[in-house]
Design goal:
The chain is an alpha/beta fold and 245 residues long. It is 32% helix and 24% strand. It is globular and about 50 Å long.
């Protein structure tokens, strides 16, 4: 059976000089029928271009870093986290290629934020500091992992995949989409008003979610549907590329 290649940016751990990615993402892509292609974040766009010539879909995973607010014309907030410019550059290069080739994109946590910034949108740099009456969106050492409900916009692709208008999600982030970028719209909202998901408005499969479906796909039908739908769209690109060759 044909399997589309899915490009996934890696993480870099400075202390150990380890380059890799959390296995949850790899397992979810493999289960859904894709082949993960891990792309090192080296800050070299030419190397990234060599990788992305081979892929049929882009998965932008989470990251322990924040996007440099200079990319969306904002000053740095006091609560801004650690920056990793190489990851920002890698994501933006992948998204440029995805737009040129009309590839499907699934952004998760940091990935929804880089997608939004690439399209000219802005971010809330620190939810606890900047949102009135915020929920707990981030994991804390002395508490269980954060969870909350999310309202899905009626008629959105993500609501159709969920099969309902409200879902409970895991939560591990201190930033979020503030203003959606071009051809993007907000389609999911936490009770405190924080945007939890965005979609492309042109009909392409481009979904960004602030939660982590890769952690729950084994037991959650909605998380499974996100990955299977994403890989199905990548398979369409795979078949079209082979036909054109």
């Amino acid at each position: 059976m044909a399997k589309p290649w899915i490009g996934i940016p890696t993480r870099y751990h400075e202390k150990t000089e380890y380059i890799g990615q959390i296995r949850h993402y790899v397992d979810a892509v493999l289960w859904a029928g894709g082949l993960p292609l891990l792309i090192p974040c080296l800050g070299d766009c030419e190397i990234v271009h060599d990788y992305i010539k081979r892929v049929h879909g882009i998965l932008l995973p989470g990251s322990p870093t924040d996007i440099d607010p200079a990319h969306y014309g904002a000053a740095r907030h006091d609560k801004l986290g650690r920056l990793f410019p190489e990851r920002d550059d890698t994501d933006f290069t992948l998204l440029e290629h995805a737009d040129r080739k009309a590839l499907p994109v699934l952004g998760i946590c940091f990935g929804v934020q880089s997608l939004n910034v690439h399209r000219g949108g802005t971010l809330v740099q620190d939810i606890p500091s900047l949102v009135s009456g915020p929920l707990i969106h981030d994991e804390e050492n002395d508490r269980p992992p954060a969870r909350h409900h999310v309202r899905l916009d009626e008629g959105s692709l993500i609501a159709r995949l969920a099969g309902r208008s409200e879902v409970e999600v895991n939560s591990s982030h201190h930033q979020a989409v503030e203003t959606p970028g071009r051809n993007l719209r907000a389609v999911a909202f936490a009770p405190d008003g924080v945007i939890e998901a965005i979609e492309d408005t042109t009909g392409r499969f481009i979904i960004g979610v602030q939660w982590h479906p890769e952690r729950e796909w084994k037991k959650d039908p909605f998380s499974k549907a996100l990955f299977t739908s994403f890989i199905e769209q990548a398979l369409v690109r795979y078949n079209n590329s082979n036909f054109n060759e």
